[in-house]
Design brief:
311 residues; alpha+beta; Ribosomal Protein S5, domain 2; Alpha-Beta Plaits; 7-stranded mixed β-sheet; 11 strands; binds (R)-mevalonate
Length: 311
């Protein structure tokens, strides 16, 4: 039996604009992970996949649907990449995830990364972060249509990154970042909000490009504040970025309420994270304020609250 896992992520600054070539900053959430377990089985069954959180079990060659296709493709791409003949293998693959689905924390990329790593390990081929990222990017294309590539990159390397059009810079926070993540409880597919933004961009390119430039400014200034260990400036930029995402039309009442609750409880700044339209928000805090912010988020309706420290 072989097990591998992968982190989830939050985008600190720059979502949506990053799809249009602007820079963004993302960090891994190492405490909230997905796992894949691979066993060789003695049967002619081929490759069977049990996705516990989806309540689905299926074979690699089953007719695909929207839910299982990305997972089937992750397996196929990995085996192709390792030059293993699919027909020669009888495997049982179990997937488990604590990453909430369709909430902006990269659940799809996280599960796919764990899966790719576990298959590689099981077949005695170590898959490095660059390979995992590239394999998962192909899967992300099925999930999201036009992914920027930031999710698969931050998850595969499990390090804070600055990202622009495939260019990656690994960041070292000057001070540990204390992040509190609140889940609004409403699922929202990244693909849908990306399409919504595309429509807005098509209708008024100049206005939306100007918003993207403002978001890019937040991301660049935020990168500097993060590296210099200046959480007050970084927090302010998170809140500024949230206001720009509101103007882009990807926030929701529930997300705005959580952002407000976190700020009232002492957060240095807060914003929605990921595609928006639902899903999660993230607040930056001083360590001593984390319990009060977590309580305030729960009281304001967060379905789950996560805490992570990024070093
Ligand atoms: C999704 O986590 C972030 C978006 O910017 C989409 C992408 O970058 O592919 C909304």
């Amino acid at each position: 039996m072989t097990i591998a896992s992968a982190a989830s992520k939050v985008i600190l600054l720059g979502e949506h604009a990053v799809v249009y070539g602007r820079p963004a900053v993302a960090v891994p959430v190492s405490e909230v992970r997905a796992w894949a377990e691979v066993n060789t089985i003695l049967s002619e069954e081929g490759i069977c996949i049990y996705a516990e959180d989806l309540g689905r079990s299926f074979r690699l060659d089953d007719p695909p649907d929207e839910t299982i296709l990305p997972l089937q493709e992750a397996v196929r791409n990995t085996l192709r990449n390792l030059r293993f003949p699919i027909e020669a293998l009888s495997l049982e693959i179990r997937l488990r995830s604590r990453v909430p689905m369709a909430r902006g924390m990269g659940s799809g990329a996280s599960v796919a990364t764990a899966l790719v790593r576990a298959i590689g390990k099981h077949l005695c081929h170590s898959i490095d972060a660059a390979q995992a990222s590239a394999l998962v990017f192909q899967v992300e294309r099925i999930f999201h249509g036009t992914p920027s590539g930031i999710d698969n990159t931050v998850i595969a390397y499990e390090k804070p990154i600055w990202y622009r059009q495939g260019e990656v810079v690994f960041l070292r926070p000057g001070e540990p970042l204390h992040l509190v993540i609140g889940d609004s409880g409403t699922p929202s597919r990244t693909r849908d909000t990306v399409a919504q933004v595309r429509e807005k961009h098509r209708a008024d390119p100049a206005a939306v490009e100007a918003l993207f430039d403002e978001i890019a400014r937040c991301a660049e200034a935020g990168r500097e504040a993060l590296e210099q260990g200046n959480p007050i400036t970084l927090g302010g930029l998170l809140s500024e970025n949230h206001a720009l995402l509101q103007r882009l039309g990807v926030s929701s009442e529930a997300l705005d309420a959580l952002v407000m609750a976190a700020r009232r409880a002492g957060a240095l700044g807060a914003k929605l994270t990921g595609g928006g339209g639902g899903g999660c928000m993230v607040a930056l805090a001083f360590e001593e304020d984390v319990p009060a912010i977590s309580e305030a988020l729960a009281a304001a309706g967060a379905q789950s609250v996560y805490y992570t420290v990024v070093m």
